[in-house]
Automatic annotation (TrEMBL):
Residues 8-60, 64-162 form the Nitroreductase domain. Keywords: Flavoprotein, FMN, Oxidoreductase. It comes from Halobacteriovorax marinus. Belongs to the flavin oxidoreductase frp family. InterPro entries: Flavin_OxRdtase_Frp, Nitroreductase, Nitroreductase-like. This is NADPH-dependent oxidoreductase. GO terms for molecular function: oxidoreductase activity. The keyword Protein biosynthesis does not apply. Pfam families: Nitroreductase.
Length: 256
């Protein structure tokens, strides 16, 4: 298939075959990651590849006990990393200009760009991936387990392996909802309802098909997808907690 159809065929894979990823394939896709766009060609990121079973077990709890953490043959963690750059600058007699929030953002973007290159390269090799938001939510614990030095923060990560499932496509918003021509185009209330109508229908159905979630949804009287997101998945309390974790950790990692 051509690249556009290939990219649109992405599915998040949470179940994997008991099959190792050959080192030469893994190295090939990682090299593709290092060719991603990067601010100032600094490559202010590091990629941590975890295959050790015991280490993956340690990572299970900070990744919210998602089974794919231990079931997938590989976990990859992409970190914002100015440790290496700052050491090089120090050795070379340069000024330390990278101990601030802007530097953290630059490194975070670099890490994210590299991660998407690796994800696409992996899928091109017949592998499956599933991004895990828990990488950032538990950045402090993951950083401790992975023995990250100062100036390094986990940003994004995913499980990796040969797929053992074929999930259905998850509805995306229509293109006109996310593409704005020239300047931002505000949508009316009716337009917003229409934008989310298909995702609302398919998303709500998907959650209701999981028995334990259905029980929670019905007990709380939740009747739409927006309420599932804000009442069950992404509560204000949890997001404030995660925000504090991230801000405290990037401060302790000397980015503030």
């Amino acid at each position: 298939m051509n690249f556009h159809n290939f990219a649109k065929s992405h599915r998040s894979i949470r179940k994997y075959k008991e099959k190792k990823v050959p080192v030469e394939i893994l190295d090939k896709i990682l090299e593709t990651g290092t060719m991603a766009s990067t601010s100032g060609n600094m490559q202010a990121y590091s990629i941590i590849v975890t295959t050790d079973k015991e280490l993956k077990k340690e990572l299970l709890v900070p990744h919210f006990n998602q089974e794919m953490v231990t079931q997938a043959p590989v976990l990859i963690t992409f970190c914002a990393d100015f440790h290496r750059m700052r050491e090089w600058v120090r050795i070379s007699g340069g000024e330390n200009n990278f101990d601030n929030f802007m530097s953290f953002m630059i490194a975070s973007i670099d890490a994210t760009l590299a991660s998407q290159n690796v994800a696409l390269a992996a899928e091109a090799e017949g592998l499956g991936i599933c991004y895990m938001g828990t990488t950032l939510a538990s950045c402090d614990e993951i950083g401790r387990i992975l023995k990250l030095p100062q100036n390094v923060v986990p940003i994004v990560g995913f499980s990796l392996g040969y797929p053992d499932e074929t999930p259905e496509f998850r509805e995306r918003l229509p293109m006109d909802a996310v593409i704005h021509r020239e300047t931002y185009q505000h949508s009316s209330t009716e337009e917003i309802k229409e934008i989310y109508s298909k995702k609302e229908e398919s998303g709500f159905k998907r959650y209701m098909e999981v028995p334990e979630l259905r029980e929670k949804i019905e007990s709380l009287g939740i009747d739409n997808l927006a309420k599932i997101y804000t009442t069950l998945k992404y509560t204000e309390e949890s997001h404030i907690g995660y925000s504090k974790t991230v801000l405290d950790y990037i401060s302790s990692q000397n980015f503030m």
